[in-house]
Design goal:
Belongs to the helicase family. InterPro entries: DNA_helicase_pif1-like_DEAD (IPR010285), P-loop_NTPase (IPR027417), PIF1_helicase (IPR051055). It holds the Pfam family PIF1. Keywords: ATP-binding, DNA damage, DNA recombination, DNA repair, Helicase, Hydrolase, Nucleotide-binding. This protein is mostly helical. The chain has 4 domains: 46 residues, no CATH class; 69 residues, no CATH class; 234 residues, 3-Layer(aba) Sandwich (Rossmann fold); 44 residues. 39% of the residues lie in helices and 6% in strands. The chain contains 16 helices and 6 strands. About 8% of the residues have low confidence.
Amino acid sequence: MNIRHECYDARDDYHAQLKLQVAAQYDKDADLDTEDEEEECPDDADVADVLDAVLLEESGIGVWSQKKLDQMKEVEAVMQSAGWTVDSVSSQTRSTEDSFAPDRMMGPNKWKSVVSAARKEVLDSRLVNAKGHILAHDDDVGSKDPAYDGVKVVNDARVLPGAYFLSEFELADADVQAQLTEAVTKYSLNEEQRRAFSIVARHSISVSPAPLLMYIGGMGGTGKTRVIDSLRYWFTIRSEANRMAVTAPTGAAASVVRGSTYHSYLGVATGDRRAYAPRGRALDEARLRMRGVDYIFMDEISMVSCQDLYLIDKRLKDVTTLEDMPFGGLSIIVAGDFAQLPPARGLSLYSGEVSKVQRPRQSQTDQENTLGLLLWNLFVTVVVLRQNMRQTNTSDAAEDSLRTCLEHMRYKDCTEADLEFLRSRIPSNNPALNLGDPMWCDVSVITAWNTHKDQINAMNAIRFARENNRPLHMFYSVDRQGRGKGRVRQKPARD
């Protein structure tokens, strides 16, 4: 049955509003509230065709297009006022020490296979030291795999003094204490870093301890990566390098800590690629990589959503087959700064939109978000690093001022001295600063608008072509406004 619906209220007539906006493209001074929109845009005119016609007319630049052009001109003027020029640096003066040339030329598919083989070799190398560690699933899953040949269960029974079970018990093993001191000294850990390191290190030498769920926080430069390196060294000198795996949400973050993404290491699929299956090749490979792993260090936790944390917990439970323990009974140490990047998709671990209790009418996504938030609340061991160590080894007064200014910015507590320092770094106020200098010409420019970014990239493309005596090819694309598929977003449940 077809029910005819007519809208008699102009404020609810979206099609009429859209036609008025198109009409305004022809005449910027046109009143959008006029009722005589028929002359500007006939009923039978296709909105997309009208927009295309507007874009093709030189005098038909709309309000939004003009605003973008103004922003591009603005950033170009700012760059030029800072000393940026097209011919600022010649190709002869540019250093070529960092240039890279491959030893051999191969096609994209060949390079992809080479990278995949190298990646598999690195992951498999972590199995070398995994001796004597048997997971709960080994009897029924991995016993037929060649990697399990010759592996036997280690007898971990030992005699412990009665004082071990007292809260004031202190380590009396001189060799272990020497190893602790060596790791702390090698990486020059400060008091806060030493506290985080000691918690994990002493937990690793305890007998049958409860899983450690720990969060290491702090702004950039406080030494979170330093703690990771010291822990990696600690396990190495104890011939237990296989006990800790280092992961991160993105490839760039994983490369900084010399680890892997948790997607590839654990075989977790998230977002549109999610196709979760309890069994399969990805799970078997994850079990092999996780042999002997007791600690998983995850950096950049701010980029992990509630749903991602739930999926990680679910995957680790499949790996260890311990469904009744968070993260399959493994110890998880996470680090990051929640004032930095949020998750690319999903709700962050501190989001107030996630319900703390499950409700009968929740969607699957909302249920997983709730479970992820509850898992995050289990991280009760917290160490916050506050001392910025990034510029402490320099004697430059400007570096010290920058470090102090960044610390004050984080807490919205900038002083007049901080503002004066920032003003002194503006090229128009400081003749010593010039973007035309070789040391500054290729630095990254941080900007808040895509229009600024596009204009800066276009300017640098022209300069790069001139410096290298290469032609600059321009490719034009014609965009057409399409009709996207709408998706109704369910309102999250609240407490």
